[in-house]
Amino acid sequence: MCPECRSNAIDVQAPSGSVEAPAPRRAMASARPPVTTALVGANTAVFVVMLLSGVPLESPTLAQLLKWGANWGPLSLGAQPWRILSSNYLHIGIIHIALNMWCLWSLGQLAERIFDRWTYFLTYTACGIGGSLASLWWHPMVVGAGASGAIFGLAGALISALYLGRLPIPKEALRGTMRSLLTFAGYNLFFGAVGAGIDNSAHIGGLITGLALGAVLARHLTDLPEIRSRWNAGVFLVTAVILFGAFNFLRHAKANPPQLPPGDTTWSIPSTKPGYSYSSQSLARPGTPRSFQPVSTA
């Protein structure tokens, strides 16, 4: 996106009367953000297919979550590393997906005005993976799912890009947007710290990944498309190497996790300590210490 288009698109955030309104065609285009629409659509489609397959609208079992690709150390760090990504498109009930998609829709529309489409999508994906890896590092035996690691990362990338990117945005609009982003991150991190069953490690991992990516991408955010594309390609190549290295580090650091019994599937889940069993029939057993909760939402 050229600097002029980016400036005009973001100017709608400014106070009324301070800037010229964008052209109708551009306003119509921004009302249908393609990447955000695709991401929300993909998450929603997975949730709908889960419902059609018999997964309940609320409180799916651990077996159902694992069947559909939830993140869990013995599998994600074992023979099924694809769960590190797939868990970002999996949600634990209607309220979980509704809240996450509302946040994604709000942040995504701003991201499409700051980044080009591929940069936005790859940033979202990298932050989701970063959040999943942080979750595996913090509590590998907890089953986790949700898009909020990626969403927090998107917020972090926007914070860095807006602060460091020298974008042609009116100061009042920039201050208001930054205040909103920081409030979103701070409030939800606090809520994740005090709320039960919330995977704050995924939030923090995604946020840190996004802040770092946004800071590096900001260096050429307003350059010519050719220069920006070459820079971004290098950034995401290095990011992929770092994430792959982090995955291999975790594989060795969390070596020999509890394995599934021979011939078993993912339906029975071993406990991490004697006396704490993970029931595949419920999300959380009353009295289970927080560090051994079987499911966490991201």
In short:
The protein is mostly helical and 298 residues long. The protein has twelve helices and two strands.
Task: Give the helices and strands, then pairings.
Blueprint: H1 3-10, H2 24-30, H3 34-52, H4 62-67, H5 73-76, H6 83-86, H7 94-114, H8 117-138, E1 143-145, H9 148-164, H10 171-194, H11 200-217, H12 225-253, E2 295-297
Parallel strand pairs: 1-2
Overview of this protein structure:
By secondary structure, the protein is an all-alpha fold. Helix content is 60%, strand content 2%. The protein has one domain: Rhomboid-like fold (Up-down Bundle), CATH 1.20.1540. The chain has helices at 3-10, 24-30, 34-52, 62-67, 73-76, 83-86, 94-114, 117-138, 148-164, 171-194, 200-217, 225-253; strands at 143-145, 295-297. It has a two-stranded parallel ribbon with strand order 1-2. α3 (34-52) runs antiparallel to α7 (94-114), α7 runs parallel beside α9 (148-164) and α9 runs parallel beside α11 (200-217). The chain is globular. The two termini are 31 Å apart.
